[in-house]
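Hi C.,

You asked whether I'd gotten around to modeling the 153-residue construct. I have! Everything is below, sequence then structure, no commentary in between.
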Amino acid sequence: MPSLAETHLTNRYRVLPNHANNYDTAHGGIVMKWLDEIGAMAAMRFAGNPCVTARMDGLNFRRPIPVGDTALTEAYVYGHGETSVRVRVRAERENPTTGETQVTTEGHFVFVALDDGEPTPVPELTVETDAERELRDAALADADADSQNAAGR
């Protein structure tokens, strides 16, 4: 049974002009791609099988990432179904000279584990430490808030 910590992945990208929109900030589609990729990697580490994106829930763009900054991406598994894996994703902008960071994008993706192209069962997630519980609880609270906001629209 994989632990939440074993699925917790981070990556970084230098935001270059070819990643930018006409406002000289990272194009939202590029940020989504980066989050989808790291989310899939976290899901696969958990499931032990290839995983494909089934749904994106509540992807919120809070602020832009300027060209020249670093995009920090993070993902971890916080829940699962029989064949599905729930992953919290997050991006921050980092000033490369000062190290200052700000959250830019947050969301929840659902992936489905596959074996020979068919959905396959996933293991149980273990949450063993206080740090893991804090991450899981934050993801659950965020997912709940997103679903309540979506219902109120």
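If it helps when you're writing up: The domain at 4-151 is CATH 3.10.129.10 (Thiol Ester Dehydrase; Chain A).

Thanks,
B.
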